[in-house]
Design brief:
This protein is an alpha/beta fold and about 325 residues long. It is about 30% helix and about 20% strand. Bound molecules: adenosine-5'-triphosphate. InterPro entries: AAA+_ATPase, ABC_transp_ATP-bind, ABC_transporter-like_ATP-bd, ABC_transporter-like_CS, Oligopep_ABC_C, P-loop_NTPase.
Length: about 325
């Protein structure tokens, strides 16, 4: 088995908010104890409702923020702030909104070449241009697009520019943070197909963050389901979609439209609101909304257990 491109062990991030002269700050537990690894050429999807910690995880893996706990290994090297600069080429990110993530005053050529100017100062202008043109072709942009501005493109094409920019430094891992959520449904599948094609050609590892399980079903090899900053289920795509073990996963899947009869489920309507990450329940974080919850769930937090397919639940589905 080849070495994973990224390994996270109990990766955690909390934030201190509020507080003042006479009051202590509160702790927001944005991400707690996330563990996973991704092999070259494979996709790990992270799913969950808004606020469950997906973007926090993306920021930690792309070395934008430091974890407050746990360890991250990129390309076989422990990632600590001391060596972040040497690891930045390994991982790049594509954001949800290509309009917001591209500099609208720059032409496509300049957008693509900027990472090389910063990170490959030894490269000549001609080499940078050649690389930009190569990446444009790889993502399906035409040569004449090199001199155009982002506002002259459709949403799908802008996301192609963002993907090309992310590939300029030849990363081994792409963090895709809701990469198709802002696109029309008809364009989503084009961009997803492009991403899958690039993965195969370049043997890229993907950390694919999404709230949309129907998108995830197309792209994921493995899946982490997050709830209130914690992984509650982990498994292969087939394990999680065909035999979900955590009640929260079942509820999410029941709300996902599918054309496959064997995956259709009776709709489970979750009661109550997602609790605040400022006030995470003592026991299982899902207990206040869970129809199976017993006393033990309200007092003892279940660990993620299992061989391969793992669940953090005292009463998992059989
Ligand atoms: N810098 C910060 N300071 C304080 N709290 C934060 C900070 N960043 C994130 N949080 C909180 O951490 C929790 C997780 O946020 P995060 O953005 O990771 O969730 P998410 O799953 O990506 O949600 P969304 O899909 O809405 O972006 C949220 O409750 C958020 O308010």
């Amino acid at each position: 088995m080849t070495a994973p491109v990224v390994t996270a062990e109990n990766l955690s991030r909390h934030y201190l908010v509020g507080g003042g002269l006479f009051s202590k700050p509160n702790t927001v537990r944005a991400l707690a104890e996330a563990s996973f690894s991704i092999q070259p050429g494979k996709t790990l999807a992270v799913v969950g409702e808004s606020g469950c910690g997906k973007s926090t995880l993306a920021r930690l893996v792309t070395l934008i923020e430091e974890p407050t706990g746990g360890a991250l290994t990129l390309d076989g090297k422990a990632a600590t702030p001391d060596n972040w600069d040497s690891l930045r080429d390994t991982v790049q990110i594509v954001f949800q909104d290509p309009y917001g993530s591209l500099n609208l005053r720059q032409r496509v050529g300049a957008i693509l070449e900027e990472p090389l100017i910063i990170n490959r100062p030894q490269m000549s202008a001609a080499e940078r241009t050649a690389k930009a043109r190569e990446m444009m072709q790889l993502v399906g942009l035409r040569p004449e697009h090199y001199d155009r501005f982002p506002h002259m493109f459709s949403g799908g094409q802008r996301q192609r520019i963002a993907i090309a920019r992310a590939l300029m430094l030849e990363p081994k891992l792409l963090v895709l943070d809701e990469p198709v959520s802002a696109l029309d449904l008809s364009i989503q599948s084009q961009v997803l197909n492009l991403l899958m094609d690039l993965q195969e050609r370049l043997n890229l590892a993907y950390l694919f963050i999404s709230h949309d399980l129907s998108v995830v079903r197309h792209v994921a090899d493995d899946l982490i389901v997050m709830y209130l900053g914690r992984p509650v289920e982990f498994g292969s795509r087939d394990q999680v979609f065909n035999t979900p073990q955590h009640p929260y996963t079942k509820a999410l899947l029941s709300a996902t439209p599918t054309t496959e009869p064997h995956l259709r489920r009776e709709r489970i309507k979750l009661q109550g609101e997602l609790p605040s990450p400022l006030n995470v329940p003592d026991g299982c974080p899902f207990a206040p909304r869970c129809w199976k919850a017993q006393d033990v769930c309200r007092h003892t937090r279940p660990e993620l257990v299992g061989e391969g397919h793992q669940t953090a639940c005292h009463f998992p589905e059989e």
